[in-house]
Structure formats: structure tokens, C-alpha cells
Amino acid sequence: MYKLDIPSLELTQHCTMPFKPMSAAFEGENTLPPCDWLLDLDTQNDTTLVRYDTICSDALHILDEDILLTPNLEFDSLVIQITNPLDGMAESLTLSGDDSEVSLRGNDSQRIVLASTGFTKGSQMLALLPNLTYINSASIPTIGWRYIDVILYHPFHGELTARIALYISSGNNDESRYEAQSCEGTSIEVAGLSYRRDTIFQLLLANQFGCDSLVQVQLNFADTFAQQFSYQLCSGEDIMIADQVIGVDTNFTLNLQSITGCDSTLYYEVIIEEALSSTVEASICAGEAYPFAGEVYNTAGTYVDTLQASNGCDSLHFLELTVNPLPTPNIETNGNLCQGATVELTTATMYANYQWDNGSTASSVIATDAGTYGLAVTDSNGCSGTTSVELSNTPPVIIYEILQPNCTGETGTLLIEEINEGTPPYSIAGQVIEAGQLIPGFTEGIHEVIVTSSDQCETSIRFTVFPGEVLEVELLPSIDIEVGQPIQMPIFTNNAVTNVLWSPANGLSCTDCLMPTVNPLVTTIYEVVVTDDQGCEWVGTIEVKVPEVTLYVPNAFSPNLDNINEIFIAYPTELVESIWIYDRWGAQVFLSEEGTIGWGGRINGKPAAEGVYVYIIEWSDTGGVTRVASGEVTLIR
Q: Which of 239, 333, 351, 453 could form an S-S bond across to 377 if both were Cys, CB 3.0 to 4.6 Å?
């Protein structure tokens, strides 16, 4: 920037500028050049342009009598802004005051703009700045530097900036709540004062940052009280009280300490409500149904409907249902229409009402004509039953056959093939019969059977039962044999035989043949059952006699290869079970259990020496009894 002296036309440098001016001015228009534009925050030069402060509930004033904005030239607008908000949007600037010629934008934010509305002077904007405040709404502001820049703007001179540094050292005002509780009769001390009853008040204190701390104080004194509890339970339920399961009527007391720490007496009462019940008795007749609890029942029994009573417990409604059987009347007849007489129809007199289909209400009526007579009765339970009887004056017609016996000793059988006419049921000697029925037990001879219908009309049947065929069998009562000598059993019949069965099987060659070979060891009685082609049976017995057998043991033998007495053996051999041979020193030289039935005079495969040997023989007699024989035998070469 240069100054031009018009009279002398001398040009001298006045100052330098960071921008290029767009015009020139006479001295009368602007007393100072743009480079001399100055914004002074401390015209007295006696204040440090730094704020060290604590943000409490009140706002912090940025400008005061020491820190002022004092520009040396006019300006068109200014901007005030926080350049480094450490607490973000919790920090803001507020400018109060009212001047209609000043445009104010961005109030209560981090950037406020003051501008001219056309003819506004800078002094008007400066007049509002003493009301500028800084606000931090963070619960605990961040400690550190904040920088607030003040920027002036002029279309010719450009912009000019001044900075105020603000250091936040501690936090805001706060509010808190203090509650304390004690038991009745004690005291609580707050701020040097003692309190003995419930109260609420406020204390204004200074916190650690020097800000106001408003404490809401509430003091409560709990009673030492007694409380009563009553529980109503339904039958079968229980409740847990003080870790005990209780399911009966009871009263008891518990001395406890309440949640406040004060003594508390609790009185408990448990009442068991019994289930309410009611019973209705009803009866129906068989085949009927009874409605109950939304259902219908037709069988006898006890039924229950569960409801809820006014006490909340179950209410049981029982139904005792009886099902009465229907009466089963029986009509008895006395008389016979077949002989032209009348018939009296009677029934039991135990019923309450009678109704015959001819209109009679008596327990008996007289019938004079054939036909069906019906009766309905009602018993004392109101149940009804019906029956009927058919009367006829025509005797039954019987078609029958006699089944003659096949074998002697058997009886004949009457076969009722058909029954016609008359009125059923039909009977013989009081026993009811039907078509197709077999009536056995008729012996040889002439028989007469009377068939009676229900209306007492009779028909006679006469027939003859002939004797059955005789199976003749010839069998000797006994025979004699020797042991080991089999013989064929002699038996003869007059008819063709289809089946034979002998018993017992011991000593028989077969049990199902007509003439088996027999060879028992002892005397035995055999039974035989013979059946011919007609199914007739004959049963007989025969005794086979066998003399008692003794054991024969030789006293010498000569195993010299002449085929005479080569082996020492006892007879009969089939009775021998075991043979032991010992020498004269008592050593065993032979045992028949080795698979031989006699001793061939050899020891360990070599010929034994001549001499006397001792034998022991175990054998069974014909009766099956085990016996022992012993003695000496001489071996001769």
C-alpha cells in the first residue's frame, strides 16, 4: 500500500497487505488505509486474553469490562465461533439483546453471525457483544482449551480475526438424592442435625469442582409392626410358608426381621376348605338313558360332575344311577284245548299292573279258543315287560328215526327230524326238544314216548330197539413158557378186526398186531383191546407164566483151543451185568465191562496160568432185583 502525495507527486510505501485492493480513496473518505485496520481486545493493555474458569449451571460471559471488541474501522458483519468444541454439541454460544437493524443468525449454536440490514453501523453490533455467553451442557465437561474466534468482515478491507482462549478446569452444577431408612425409635444424622421422624428437605452444597450441588434428602423411619396373613386352600392343596409345606388347618406366628432391618411379627392362618358335594339318586329301566352333566348314561354306577363353588374349590355333584331290569313274566297254562276244555292262563302276582291283549287287567285269564295270548306287566319300578303264549287244539306231528345200536351193550337213539303242528315249545317228559335233536339211552325192547306241546296237546311215538352185534374173541386165560423161549400169543375173532392194542409192551414183539410173539423174563399179565369194523370193542387178558430163573456158574473151564469150555461164562447171559476175576493174590485180571460177556483165560493178551481164580458176578433176577454171586473157578490147560 502506497501513499501518493498529490502536490509533490511523491509515492511512498505505507504498508503491505495480504490481498489486492480494488479501489483507491481520498484521505477524506478513509482516514486510515486498509492495512491499518485493527481489532483490539484490550485497549488498556492490562488483561490477558485468556479465560480460566469452571463451568457451573450458569453461563460463562466471554466479554466484560476488561475484554472488549474495539475495532479502529467500521465493518459490515462479524462472526463469533467455537473452533474446537471438545464436548461436541454440548457446547454452544448464546447472544441476548434486541436490535432490529442487526441481523442475528445461529444463536444457541457454535457459530453466531451478526450482519447489517442495510444501514447498520458496526457499533450497533458491538453493543450486543457484552451479552455473549458460553454454555457447556455436558454432565462433566472435558477439561482443556477452547478457542473462540471473532471475525470482522468489510467488502473493501477484507476480514480481521481476534481469538479469545477459554480453559475449562472443572464440571457443572449437579443435583443428587440421598435416602436413608432406619427403624422407629432411632435417629439419622444429616449435616450435623439429628432426625427421628419421616422428613423430606433440600441441602445446597458445593461439589468438588466448586459448583453448586443440590441434594434432595428423604428420611424414612420404618415401623416395627405385626402383620396377619390368612390363606384359604382347597382340600388336597398345600402352601409353602417359611420353607414349610402346609396342607392342614393351622395357626402359627413367625418373628422375623423385615427388609428394613426392623422387627416384624407375622401371624399366619391356613384354612382348608373341604370340597362341597351333593348326591342325586336316580333309577331307570333297562334300555333307557339318564341325562347328567351334558352326557347320557344307561348303565348302573356312580358318576361325578366337577363344578367350582363360590369359595373357588371344586364342588362335586354325584349321580347314583340304578338300572332296573325289565320284568320277564311267564305264562303258565292249566288245561288242554285238545280235549275241548278251557285253559287257564296265569302269571306271577308280584307285578303292579297287568294288561292282557284281550283287555283283562287281572293276573290270570281263561282261554277258550286257539290262538296267541299276549301279556304286558309293569313292576313297582315302573318298568314294563311283555310275553305271549300260543294255544292250539292240534297235537304235534313228529317225524323221527330210530338209530339202532351197533354193538352189544349199547343203547338206541331217537332222532327227532321234524315237528309240525301244535304249539311250541315241545317236550318229552318235561325236557324241551327241538327238530334235529338226538335223544339217546333207549335199551333193547319196545318204547313209547309222549311228545307234549306247550298247550298240553300230546302225540305218542312207539318204536323198537334191537340188540347190537356181538364181537366174539377167543383168548386163553394163561400160557406157560421158559425164559428165553418166545411163543406166539393165540387169539381168534368172529369179525374183521380194525384195531388191536396190547399192554404192557415188555416182552412183546408188537403192541398193535393180532398175535404178537411174547418172551418176558418174568410172569406177566397182558391186556388186549380188540375193535372190529363196526366199532365194537372187546377187552381181555392173558397171563404168561415164566418160572423163576437162577444163575448157573461153572467151577472150571479149559481155554486150550479145543472149542470145549473155552470161556468162563454164567447162564443165562442176559441176566449178567458185570463179571470181575481176581488172582490168588487179589489182583484184578478181568472185568466184563470192557465189552465181553465172559473170560477167555487171558491176562493182558497172554494166556493166564493154571490155577484157582476168584469171581464176583453182578446180575438181575427175573423180578429185576440186582444180585451178587461170588466163588472160585479153576483154569485148566
A: 351
Residues 381 and 406 in one domain: no
Do 181 and 142 lie in one domain? The reply is: no
pLDDT tens digit sequence for 495-554: 888 899 999 998 899 999 988 999 887 889 999 999 988 888 889 999 999 887 788 899
Q: How confident is the model at residue 89 (pLDDT cuts 50, 70, 90)?
A: very high
Q: Is the pLDDT of residue 122 over 70?
A: yes
Edge-first strand listing for the sheet containing 212-222: 174-183, 212-222, 199-206
Could you tell me which residues are beta bridge partners of residue 202?
216
Q: How many CA atoms lie within 13 A of 386 on its CB side?
A: 7
Residue range of the domain that includes 189: 174-222
Given a cut of 50, is residue 24 above it in pLDDT?
Answer: no
Q: How confident is the model at residue 2 (pLDDT cuts 50, 70, 90)?
A: low
One DSSP character per residue, 284-351 reads EETT--EEETTEEE-S-EEEEEEEE-TTSSEEEEEEEEEEEPPP----EEEE-GGGT--EEEE--S--
Residue type at position 4: L
Residue 54 resides in a domain: yes
CA end-to-end span of the chain, whole Å? 179
Q: Does one domain contain both 515 and 579?
A: no
Q: Looking at the structure, tell me whether residues 286 and 344 fall in a common domain.
A: no
- Please report which confidence band the pLDDT of residue 69 belongs to, taking 50, 70 and 90 as the band edges: low
d(CA 426, CA 422): 8
Q: DSSP labels for 336-357?
A: -GGGT--EEEE--S--SEEEET
Q: How many domains does the chain have?
A: 8
